[in-house]
């Protein structure tokens, strides 16, 4: 008992420091509340996360005004009380700010909930959606977006900000064991989201291997990260989009959001790992939207040591390419009949969005999707997860 006391005191101190409400969220990033003991931890093939394990994890939910319900569609990372980071493809079929609700501090979520979120969860509106100006839906290039939160969300119990890499960090180091988290499908054709936040350990995979013929056959860009296992089995899936890929920084002793869940072929298939938008190549873009100071606050504190300038990101190559038809389940079972009441602060219109590319899905496929959607009332924005094999792709056209 006596021996345990110092530990208990330390714990209470730690929790009271971490859990203290802070309306501005300008404390250190990457603080966690609780976590599963690591090691066996092994989304698809993951485990339930404990509450507060990933305090920056946000649930982006599609809101339907005719029945007042909200449906989880994507994950996101809280950067500060005003901004969260997610994937651009989440907004392809739902681009209006009043289509969305944001849930913070959650572990359990109810799909189709019509009750307001109760503390410690916080529910917020979207003020603005900023998709990357060069987002290409058919290829998932630059699949990154920022969402402005209104009113601002306070950090506190189970809500905190995630860390972005430092400028000098460079692309995520490979190999490295990292973590993904989300409420996405527990298996490829589950067609329903997980009620409890899942977490899974995944390995970062060499981009050249991930890009090779037997794998993604040329679809991978230098701005991506690949994570998973050669044999599949553990992966992100539909509904995990926009959520964080997190790697431990051993110097700062915390997790850094190095990627955003973007796409994959199926889920947890062999040689079809999850593909992520790396955050590091987009630090300047993020700074240009949320401000350099805000970005700086969301980056790991830089210990004073001689810094060599990080090498610039390789410019993305613009090779002609025939894309796969995406499995966007974009048939909306509950089209919004009337615009819902505007958020307390009138939102500004979202930035113009790249035109949606036509889906090359057969009638039968669409019918099947419709049936599945109606069965599971599944909202679909979830993911650029594709069903077709990349090996069916015609050879890439060589640049002459
Ligand atoms: C809370 O916010 C203040 C600034 O308003 C900051 O100085 C302080 O470090 C923050 N506290 C915590 C616990 O993060
Ligand atoms: C992947 O392969 C394609 C086609 O060869 C190439 O254009 C692209 O740059 C490669 N990606 C990376 C990250 O090297």
From TrEMBL:
The active site is at 89 (charge relay system), 143 (charge relay system), 241 (charge relay system). Residues 1-19 form the signal peptide. Disulfide bonds join 25-155, 29-163, 74-90, 178-247, 210-226, 237-267. Pfam families: Trypsin (PF00089). Its EC number is 3.4.21.10. One of its GO terms (cellular component) is acrosomal vesicle. It catalyses: Preferential cleavage: Arg-|-Xaa, Lys-|-Xaa. It is an enzyme of class 3 (hydrolase). The keyword Ligase does not apply. It comes from the Eukaryota. One of its GO terms (molecular function) is D-mannose binding. GO terms for biological process: acrosome reaction; proteolysis. Residues 43-291 form the Peptidase S1 domain. Residues 297-354 are annotated as: Disordered. CDD domains: Tryp_SPc. Residues 312-326, 334-350 have a biased composition (Pro residues). Keywords: Disulfide bond, Glycoprotein, Hydrolase, Protease, Serine protease, Signal, Zymogen. Belongs to the peptidase S1 family. Heavy chain (catalytic) and a light chain linked by two disulfide bonds. Forms a heterodimer with SERPINA5. Acrosin is the major protease of mammalian spermatozoa. It is a serine protease of trypsin-like cleavage specificity, it is synthesized in a zymogen form, proacrosin and stored in the acrosome. This is Acrosin.
